[in-house]
């Protein structure tokens, strides 16, 4: 009797239900006492403990693999010989990556704000950079003494951002002045020297943009124009959801957002915000969302560190 008592006390200390039930069933079988309640442990119950161990171990392995892959991809992205000017912000399983709700308000979009500047290396010589590379103007016919560079646009009055966007959600705003302005995205492979239409951001299958002609907006892709019914906006919000492969443009008035157009795309490479100023005296200003938020306490913007992680690496 004393031995039974000790065994029961030992069983009572188990925190694992499966082990407790297994020992209890064995104890009841040895006693042959029908007054003790019966417990049936089926195959499903026996396997649940194994399932839990496998699930937890798999999750740990995935985290290790993601961390390792991120480090290796980041090292590759920083290799100058690879010719890629980006960083890898995160590697997240698609079930988690796609679960975040779609932004609804401007404050929601601002959570994905990224820090951008124009890339002097890519700017056409008729484009003048101002305001620490946050503003660019078309000064045709006046050229600027930029050094020769293989990435500089030689025919179309275009410029890329100094940052590429990859594997995440990104949002930024620009203010436009003048007609004939194109705003969009392209990848690194765009031709910098050619005069053909596929060398500009409206005329190939790896660029997407909208145009303001002074009266109306239109969407452009592979040299096809789609007129958009919209009022005039001087400020444009651009939202890239890389995992979902969508690129959206919004007209901004204070905190009000009007959807102008959404492209459903097929992304294969990191994307660069791209701008084409087709007429003299055109100008584009990249909005400094951080400074603007500091002047508006009601604006909900991430911390400086979070903004930095949202924007991808600036190359020299």
TrEMBL record:
CDD domains reported for this sequence: SPRY_PRY_TRIM16 (cd12890)
UniProt-annotated stretches for the region Disordered: 294-316
GO molecular function, one term: zinc ion binding
Pfam families, A to Z: PRY (PF13765), SPRY (PF00622), TRIM_CC (PF25600)
Residue ranges, compositional bias (Polar residues): 297-316
Keywords: Metal-binding, Neurotoxin, Toxin, Zinc, Zinc-finger
Family as reported in the entry's similarity comment: Belongs to the ohanin/vespryn family.
Function: Neurotoxin that produces dose-dependent hypolocomotion and hyperalgesia in mice. May directly act on the central nervous system, as it is 6500-fold more potent when administered intracerebroventricularly than intraperitoneal.
Protein name stated in the entry: B30.2/SPRY domain-containing protein
Annotated source species: Micrurus spixii (Amazon coral snake)
């Amino acid at each position: 009797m004393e031995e039974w008592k000790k065994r029961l006390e030992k069983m009572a200390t188990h925190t694992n239900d499966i082990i407790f039930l297994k020992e209890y069933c064995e104890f009841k079988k040895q006693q042959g006492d029908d007054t003790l309640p019966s417990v049936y442990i089926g195959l499903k119950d026996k396997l649940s403990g194994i399932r839990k161990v496998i699930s937890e171990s798999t999750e740990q392995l995935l985290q290790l693999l993601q961390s390792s892959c991120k480090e290796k991809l980041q090292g590759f992205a920083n290799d100058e010989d690879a010719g890629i000017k980006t960083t890898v912000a995160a590697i997240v399983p698609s079930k988690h990556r796609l679960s975040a709700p779609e932004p609804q308000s401007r404050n929601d979009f601002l959570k994905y704000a990224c820090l951008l500047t124009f890339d002097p290396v890519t700017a056409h010589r008729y484009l003048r950079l101002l305001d620490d590379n946050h503003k660019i103007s078309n000064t045709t016919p006046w050229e600027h003494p930029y050094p020769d560079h293989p990435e500089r646009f030689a025919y179309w009055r275009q410029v890329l951002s100094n940052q590429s966007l990859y594997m995440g959600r990104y949002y930024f705003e620009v203010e436009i002045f003048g007609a004939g302005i194109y705003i969009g995205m392209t990848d690194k492979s765009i031709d910098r020297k050619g005069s053909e239409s596929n060398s500009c951001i409206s005329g190939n299958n790896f660029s997407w943009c909208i145009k303001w002609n002074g009266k109306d907006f239109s969407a452009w892709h592979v040299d096809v124009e789609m007129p958009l019914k919209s009022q005039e906006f001087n400020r444009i919000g651009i939202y890239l959801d890389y995992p979902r492969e969508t690129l959206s443009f919004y007209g901004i008035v204070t905190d009000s957002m009007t959807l102008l157009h959404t492209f459903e795309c097929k992304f294969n490479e990191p994307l660069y915000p791209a701008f084409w100023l087709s007429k003299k005296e055109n100008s584009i200003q990249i909005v400094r969302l951080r400074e603007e938020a500091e002047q508006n306490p009601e604006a909900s913007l991430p911390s400086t560190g979070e903004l930095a992680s949202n924007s991808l690496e600036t190359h020299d």
